[in-house]
Amino acid sequence: MPTATDRRGAYWYKKVDREILRRVSKPTRYCAGEWNSTPKGKEARLRIALAFPDAYEVGMSHLGTRILYELLNSEPDVAAERVFLPWPDMLSAMRAEGLPLFSLETRTPLSEFHVVGFSLQHELTYTNVLEMLDLAGIPPYSAHRDDRHPLVIAGGPCCFSAECVAPFFDLMVLGDGEPFVAGLLQALRRCSWGPGWRRRLLDDLEEIPGVYRPDRFRVRYAGDGTIVEVAGGRRVRKSILESLDSVPGPVRQVVPMQAIVHDRLMVELFRGCTRGCRFCLAGMIYRPCRSRSPEEVVRLALEGFRNTGWEEISLVSLNSADYPAIADVAAALLGELAPKGVSVSVPSLRADAFSVELAKQLERVRRSTLTFAPEAGTQRLRDIINKGINDKDLLRAAEAAFDAGWQGLKLYFMIGLPGETDSDLDGIADLVGGVRDMWRRQGRRGNPRISVSVAPFVPKAHTPFQWEAQITIPEMQQRIAHLRRRLKMPGVRVHWHDPRASRLEAVLARGDRRLSEVVFNAWRLGARFDGWSEHFRPDIWEAAFRQAGVDPAHYAHRPRQREEVFPWDHLDAGVSRSFLWRERERAMSGEVTPDCREAGCHGCGVCQLISEVSGS
Amino acid sequence: MPRYRLRYAKRWAARFLSHLDMVRLFERALRRAAWPVSLTGGFNRRPKMVFAAALPVGLTSTAEYVDVWVEEAIEPGGALAVLNASLPPGVEVLALAPVPEGRANLMAAVRAARYLFAWPTGGEELARRWLALERRPRWCVVRRTKKALRTIDIKPLVYEAHLARRGSSGILKLTVASGQESNVRPGEVVELLAECGEGGFPEPFCIHRLELFIERGGRLVTPLET
């Protein structure tokens, strides 16, 4: 069982307080003590670290971590504590002083926890995981860990195709975390922690739905670099929470004392989305759509407000305007909270007039930025990606927004989508121009502020575009340059993602286990915080690929054959491969697939999975 | 609208919170405590509060003040207890009293502050440096304004000084100008000490704000003085 090996008592605890914290930026990140944080410490029998491989500000904004924190800490014998990746200045200070990575709540070294659970939200956080394990003194490779070390596990959307980090984890959890937690706690309570506990516990945990043990599987590669087979175990099916109302929502979310990315109470309206955008990983792996009842949403929001005092409540989901009772829920909450100066918001909106109406209703207390994601510039391309909005919707939404007093909009687009041509890029410029015309229409003077974000498309596993090639870096640069030229309009600002980061994301998102060496090399060479443009080091990654003899183009820029074995074929997100291929074919012929909630079942397979699971 | 003045302490990890963090922290704590706080008007409605003087990040204090407007009169003892039960560790309300009508804006009235600087060791060196500093006719510090660097003499803005030594430790208590008209930053005194002798001088182990003074009727008083 993990024990206190390298802890030097209160010595370094004081050292952190008296010396280190006063030298580093934003020391509040490492201090805890926030409202609703739960420092149980040693009194609890089971210690679980919720490790988020990014900065405090990012991790604290993550709803999944908030859910698990409260769920775990509601058990009297469990202490769940948070740990984030310290910022580079703190990392250097800790390494210089020989301090191990510690949890926020009780400053317990990570190596003294029974379980360290990482949340994998984004491919560019993989080196952060290695940095955290290393700083904690935990061997990064699962095979090198023994009974002295914590169990290192992972959850989150990336796990459906995280083969390039699979060797670093003892197990991964596919799908919803809530059902897994129940099984995990049962197994931990049963565990004797005597010699050989690690193997026995892993065997025990393997029985829980959604648990994937990478060490059970062996991959065989062909001469051309593709995969012959992934063998050794049964296909792993994701864990599914059948009803959101059946689990207690988080009503004691930790209120940070410093600013974080999403600084608000979050209430989940529904999980999953069946709009069927063909590029969207979340829209595929979180199926089916499971709604929380409006009464429960209102109850969680009001109770959450009383416990936190937050000035903003966000009604979150993959597409909150789709929630049938959204207007009623918003009205009920605003009736109670607006007089207290508390606002209600939704994270993003569909580009249509209904959404603007909703935004108008919500801005009673505080006006927020309006963000729309048309994703593509022309109807043809939006049909290919199955993004069910048209120019008229967007322009009407813009008009309604300007009429309601908004001075500007934020628009999200992707470049390099399958089938994209120059005319689609010009379509983006035309659309932005059309939005500006809407401003003029009512005789308004000046220009609206329009912020256009451009991200290179990253094909993701388990989506209809998993077979597609990503465009090359020079091609991305060219298209961005073209767009920037066309978008030189007064009041319009263009932001774009670094093509080199998008390429790396594409490599890792569909990578196989051979890439684990690359990730490891990159980390050893100093890569971390790869998702932060100021810390991203493409040169390091190039060297890491060279060292491992791996060609990134094989993963990013190669179109796959229909029958090619994918590195993630043994992981079952519930959506069948035949459905994804069918969707790809429809994409290529420009056919849209309507939402199954309105148009009936398209046979994606996820509902069948549910009935099999609940039937067994 | 009734107005209440709070004196609060900022200690331990809370010393790392910025002024903006503190504003947010109090807004949230007041809502958790369900005080009937008045709101400002406009597009962004916030609890109506006026803080006396921002405390530099890293300093502790037992003399922070904030005025809070409420919709209806509150019972100070009970309200204080409820608010303290809604504050995170490190922030504690020490006193609470109604503000008589017509009293000036708290922030605008601030004139002076008393700080304590403590060094666990090096008290002797501190005394030497303090003597050297006192002999200087001018205490010039450089300040960055929006456009340029400006040098000003802060010696006339130091109203009272008291040096104490206990064993090897040294404690310096200074009452200095504070507020919108003229202001001495504690860090500036530390810098002056560092340049007042051979080699560097360690930063104090802690800097603590002991009291804040406002002007009322031509007299300096503490903000809660009646």
Topology:
The complex is a heterodimer of chains A (616) and B (226).
Chain A: H1 10-20, E1 46-52, H2 56-59, H3 63-73, E2 78-84, H4 88-97, E3 115-119, H5 126-135, E4 151-155, E5 171-173, H6 177-190, H7 197-205, E6 211-212, E7 218-221, E8 227-231, E9 236-237, E10 265-268, E11 270-271, H8 281-285, E12 290-291, H9 294-308, E13 312-316, H10 326-337, E14 343-345, H11 353-362, E15 371-375, H12 379-385, H13 391-403, E16 408-415, H14 422-441, E17 449-456, H15 473-486, E18 492-496, H16 499-509, H17 515-524, H18 538-548, H19 552-556, E19 571-572, H20 577-588, H21 596-599, H22 606-615
Parallel strand pairs in A: 1-2, 1-3, 3-4, 4-5, 9-19, 10-13, 13-14, 15-16, 16-17, 17-18
Antiparallel strand pairs in A: 5-6, 7-8, 11-12
Helix pairs in contact in A: 5-17, 9-10, 11-13, 13-14, 14-15, 17-18
Chain B: E1 3-10, H1 19-32, E2 49-51, E3 60-69, H2 76-84, E4 91-98, H3 106-109, E5 110-119, H4 123-135, E6 140-144, E7 149-153, E8 158-166, E9 169-177, H5 186-194, E10 206-216, E11 219-221
Parallel strand pairs in B: 3-10
Antiparallel strand pairs in B: 1-3, 1-4, 2-3, 5-9, 5-10, 6-7, 8-9, 10-11
